Amino acid sequence: MVSLVVSSVIFLTGCLETTQKVMLNEDGSGNVSTISDMSALLTLIKQMGGAEAEKMSDQAKDTTIQMASMVDSIKSLTPEEKQMMAKGVLRMNFNMKENKFLLDMNFPFSSPAEIEKYSRLSAKIMGEVMKEQMNEGGGAAALGGEQMPEPSS
User: Fold this and answer.
1) How far is CA 80 from CA 26, 47, 87, 117, 136, in A?
2) Backbone dihedral angles phi then psi of residue 39, each to the nearest 5 degrees
3) 95 exposed, middle or buried (CB, 10 Å; 0-12, 13-18, 19+)?
4) Contact (Cβ atoms closer than 8 angstroms) between residue 89 and residue 65
5) Residue 148 belongs to what H/E stretch?
6) What is the pLDDT of residues 77-133, one digit of tens each?
7) CA distance 75 to 20
8) Would you say 38 and 32 are in contact if contact means Cβ atoms under 8 Å apart?
9) How far apart are CA 81 and CA 141, in angstroms?
10) Predicted TM-score (pTM) of this structure
């Protein structure tokens, strides 16, 4: 079986690096993986200091989640996006002491025509997960805001 791997890197405002990998099989099926490295954001939170940043100093999570369990937690998804999301896997690695915050979303697809849809879905999910993590962990308050803004596509 021959596979083709395509990668692209996008830099946004120095706090986010996104890498997308596409594994394409001979039959047109494959996997699309979107890895978002938000480690620079943790450095910014630490530099801002304050009580909220101090509360986050011991936080660490390394977990893999079947995204089907999260489908109903993101209210802004369309029914089609919920079906697509249910096929995915999310790995989150967050460690404040090590300045590490990585999200890796992986989706299988049956046709290359689905790659763009999964790319948009990944961006939407990543925005929601980041917003939730920052709001629950106090990161938004450490940056001077009460809540993270709604993600845009």
Assistant:
1) 26, 41, 12, 10, 28
2) -60, -35
3) middle
4) yes
5) none
6) 999 999 999 999 999 898 988 889 898 999 999 999 999 999 999 988 877 866 776
7) 25
8) no
9) 30
10) 0.69
How far apart are the C-alpha atoms of 104 and 136, rounded to whole Å?
20
> What gap in Å lies between CA 106 and CA 126, rounded to an integer?
12
* H and E: helices and strands count for the chain: 5, 6
- Which structure tokens are listed for 16? 């986010």
The answer to whether 102 touches 35, Cβ cutoff 8 Å, is yes
Residues 6+ positions from 13 with CB-CB distance below 8 Å:
none
Strand order, beta sheet including 3-12: 3-12, 16-25, 30-37, 100-109, 89-95, 60-66
49 dihedral zone (left: phi>0; alpha: psi -120 to 50; beta): left
Token pair in block for residue 69? 């369990």
